[in-house]
Specification:
The chain has 261 residues and is mainly α. The chain is built from twelve helices and no strands. α2 packs antiparallel against α3 and α7 packs parallel to α12. The longest helix is centred in the middle third of the chain and has 31 residues. The protein is globular and about 55 Å long. The two termini are 35 Å apart. The C terminus is likely disordered.
Length: 261
């Protein structure tokens, strides 16, 4: 019910959705031509051939809003409720606060994947030679990986929102999380291009679960036991961050503060 409500809520913003599709498509073309020039010079850069690199570009545009890499999900509303003290009402409701927001965010992500993910991907496939999977198993594995990525994204943003219990205004924390998400998810460049220790650290951070891991699943880079390890990586970060969020929530709700009084 909550997930369905989250889906319907975002489905009402049709003009904003259309604008998002247009923006994702435009940036997809810009990045695709940039990648084309780069991969023409280095045909196997980062372990991807040209078609795989172009597919990575359009997957990034499809998952940008789905995994809320730039924010724009529940966190602004939750931070405002914390700032005003309305979160105290939420805590008295017979539902789990974290699971309530997670369910709503899963509904949001489902809508964004369908509404803002499919169209840019189709247009990209019409304009460029993309490496699309032919096996239904890879598509299913990709959807599982995307779901895990959404949960990781939620868990990070939930922690950011909870920072408002201490900061009163979590905009700064949200901005830091947004910048980290854009860089360490692989949205700007695949993390396989990052050199040395930077690459190892970037691939080990939770943000890589948002794009890099799902993209590699889609491109068939993870198969067999490697696919299990990819899911375990995403699931491990999701569980660890959700448990951390629950711990922080437990501490924070002991000191619900209304700004100004």
């Amino acid at each position: 019910m909550v997930a369905a409500g989250g889906y319907r809520r975002y489905a009402t913003y049709r003009i904003a959705t259309a604008a998002g599709v247009f923006t994702n498509t435009v940036f997809g073309f810009i990045l695709a031509y940039t990648y084309t020039a780069l991969w023409n010079e280095r045909p196997q850069l980062g372990g991807y051939d040209m078609s795989q690199a172009l597919t990575y570009v359009w997957l990034g545009q499809a998952l940008l809003a789905t995994c809320a890499m730039m924010g724009g999900g529940f966190e602004d509303e939750l931070m405002e409720r914390i700032r005003t003290g309305d979160v105290a009402i939420d805590l008295y409701r017979p539902v789990d606060l974290q699971m309530w927001w997670l369910a709503g965010d899963l509904g949001r992500a489902t809508f964004q994947l369908l509404a803002r993910g499919i169209v840019p991907m189709v247009l990209g496939a019409l304009a460029f030679p993309l490496a699309l999977p032919v096996s239904p198993g890879i598509w299913l594995a990709f959807l599982v990986s995307v779901t895990l990525g959404v949960v990781v994204s939620f868990a990070v943003r939930y922690l950011v929102a909870l920072s408002a219990f201490w900061l009163m205004d979590g905009a700064g924390a949200a901005q830091i999380a947004f910048l980290a998400g854009m860089f360490f998810s692989g949205m700007l460049l695949p993390l396989t291009l990052f050199p040395g220790a930077l690459g190892e650290v970037a691939r080990a951070l939770p943000w890589s679960a948002l794009l890099q891991v799902p993209a590699d699943v889609f491109l068939g880079k993870h198969t067999g036991w490697g696919l299990v390890e990819a899911f375990a990586f995403q699931g491990g970060w999701a569980l660890a961050l959700l448990l951390t969020g629950r711990l922080v929530q437990s501490v924070a709700t002991r000191r619900v503060v209304v700004q100004g009084g």
